[in-house]
Amino acid sequence: MKIVFLIDQVYLHGGIERVLSIKANYLAKNAANDIHIITTEQQQNSPCYDFNSAIHFLDLGINYTRNKSYFHPKNLLKLPKHISKIKHVLKQIQPDVVVVCSHSTDTYFMPFIAKHIPKVKEFHYSKSIEVKKRKNPKSTFKKQFLKFADYVETKYDSLVVLNKDEQAYYASSNTTVIPNPLTFFPETKTTLEKKIVIAAGRIAQVKGFDLLIDIWTLFAQQDPQWQLHIYGDGPKEYVASLQKQIDANNLSEVVLLKGSTTQVKEKMLDASIYAMTSHNECFPLVLLEAQACGLPIVAYNCPHGPSNIVSKENGILVEHYNKEQFAEALLQLSRNKDLLQSMSTEAVENAKKYTIEKVMSKWINLFTTLKK
């Protein structure tokens, strides 16, 4: 089967890029599959994740201005070139299916070109963030744009969402639920001996690391022996603001901004609890990775990812933005080794539901159905 994946780039570390590498590599292992990844702004950079050598890469060289909206005039001027190039490439490849991975410009025109080729659109964010905008759009343009986006979505052969809760946000009935697959399943598990809580992800406001630092201020007053290790990269100014917050709260010896790492599995195996304080999530792969390592999870019950992964058997869901309750949850686990151990065991069992084989069987079934 010939499958084309469309994405803006694969040189920056991110959840979408990592999941794409897992899916594409799995499909490429089967010699009967011909996998193509087409980017718009790779800019001659090497992929940040490992990809099977059988996968074909092609960059269209559109190079949108990333610090501006895709609908800024500067970027809209590049749209005709983008459409023309992708039409040409698809005509050459003649794929059985096209998958739009990232939420970029091609999202809005792909259903209307090469109409004989089935199209799939993946959504890696929670549409809950649109609820307020839809109820009270700030402008006529925004109102009409949301209607246009809904219309475009109906033209895809399938919209892939990451959990069943997300389906309620789509006006069309062409949604399919396929969760993210685990990136690894280690043979060994955490010993739960080290007093380390870990958090990882893009260092961005949506991830709520500033909230986690506030929580740690409360937690450290009760249990100063534990450390919080935060892994990830982000804008220098924002990282600096977090470090300033850490220093201002006298937490510099117990809250550590560790930067990005290619050894997230090893870092998780070296910890005892995973913490998440995001404002919103869709299906956070990092929680599954943490569970695969045997880490109990404490997470805000934000829309809509954590509640689809975390249960009372394998972690603690905290009322969104309740910092005191979050600190209490951390204390509950830090002081109860038996509870920590039982949740660790259940976390591993839950992670087994999301192995690459189980998740990719859903993708292959979808592709096979669309190809008919």
Automatic annotation (TrEMBL):
Name all Glycosyltransferase subfamily 4-like N-terminal domain ranges: 14-181
Q: Which InterPro entries match?
A: Glyco_trans_1 (IPR001296), Glyco_trans_4-like_N (IPR028098)
Question: Glycosyl transferase family domain location, by residue?
Answer: 188-347
Q: Which PANTHER family match?
A: GLYCOSYLTRANSFERASE (PTHR12526)
This chain's protein is named: Glycosyltransferase
